[in-house]
């Protein structure tokens, strides 16, 4: 079917959700943000090297889809014009968002504060990664920019997770940040405390936090415990992902020595190699490659580590 589709074709998905989710395995996967693909006409943007189809929707979102899901349809001139107008409006909004990101001078490792107004941020997020209820803990919080996308959107590590945001939904934090008590914290101190390493009793929470903070001695001690799982997950991430993104080479080596699984994915489909790329950590990437990690693995945006 992919041979019959070409860029510019209009397509629909006319299958039941369960079938769509099943057919997406191995073709970019399925997330809750993809519901717009059901019952909405999209335009084929391109076919990738695996013959999967990249479809752009009126929201401006681009999704990689299994060609077996798609049915090519014919639209009237008026329908095409209406769809193109929707996309034009979205492109203008995205251009404005990219301009905001540029104006704020955002770059990887910058600290930003997330908008605290729920209704505003829901509007900002339309067509920019969308909004999920799991993102509520991030409202008003300060996080770290871990990736800049070409369309101006940003990925922020905040409140124990990593989320894609419209730059209009964040404000860059200056070199010092005032706390409620009026005291100032240096940004580098905030970076280290994004995962507060307090003792909680959850061994996997402690392992991920220690790995994020670069506490190699603590990681080594935790790995000696009989009930530890080197692949344990906290806040959607593994210790390896946390250490890889922050460039903690010694910890990455410790985890590899424990036969850590290098291919575990977070909710965005990012593996340890993607996190190393987010953090611009080439030495970590080299270590992961030598440990057998797939450097060509794709996340849900169909990106390999080399694309980031």
From TrEMBL:
<dbReference type="GO" id="GO:0008270">
    <property type="term" value="F:zinc ion binding"/>
</dbReference>
<dbReference type="InterPro" id="IPR002110">
    <property type="entry name" value="Ankyrin_rpt"/>
</dbReference>
<protein>
    <recommendedName>
        <fullName>RING-type E3 ubiquitin transferase</fullName>
        <ecNumber>2.3.2.27</ecNumber>
    </recommendedName>
</protein>
<dbReference type="Pfam" id="PF12796">
    <property type="entry name" value="Ank_2"/>
</dbReference>
<keyword id="KW-0808">Transferase</keyword>
<comment type="pathway">
    <text>Protein modification; protein ubiquitination.</text>
</comment>
<dbReference type="Pfam" id="PF18346">
    <property type="entry name" value="SH3_15"/>
</dbReference>
<dbReference type="InterPro" id="IPR040847">
    <property type="entry name" value="SH3_15"/>
</dbReference>
<dbReference type="InterPro" id="IPR036770">
    <property type="entry name" value="Ankyrin_rpt-contain_sf"/>
</dbReference>
<keyword id="KW-0862">Zinc</keyword>
<dbReference type="GO" id="GO:0006897">
    <property type="term" value="P:endocytosis"/>
</dbReference>
<feature type="domain" description="Mind bomb SH3 repeat">
    <location>
        <begin position="6"/>
        <end position="69"/>
    </location>
</feature>
<dbReference type="GO" id="GO:0005737">
    <property type="term" value="C:cytoplasm"/>
</dbReference>
<feature type="domain" description="Mind bomb SH3 repeat">
    <location>
        <begin position="107"/>
        <end position="170"/>
    </location>
</feature>
<dbReference type="GO" id="GO:0061630">
    <property type="term" value="F:ubiquitin protein ligase activity"/>
</dbReference>
<feature type="repeat" description="ANK">
    <location>
        <begin position="235"/>
        <end position="267"/>
    </location>
</feature>
<keyword id="KW-0833">Ubl conjugation pathway</keyword>
<dbReference type="GO" id="GO:0016567">
    <property type="term" value="P:protein ubiquitination"/>
</dbReference>
<dbReference type="GO" id="GO:0007219">
    <property type="term" value="P:Notch signaling pathway"/>
</dbReference>
<keyword id="KW-0863">Zinc-finger</keyword>
<feature type="repeat" description="ANK">
    <location>
        <begin position="268"/>
        <end position="300"/>
    </location>
</feature>
<keyword id="KW-0040">ANK repeat</keyword>
<keyword id="KW-0479">Metal-binding</keyword>
<keyword id="KW-0677">Repeat</keyword>
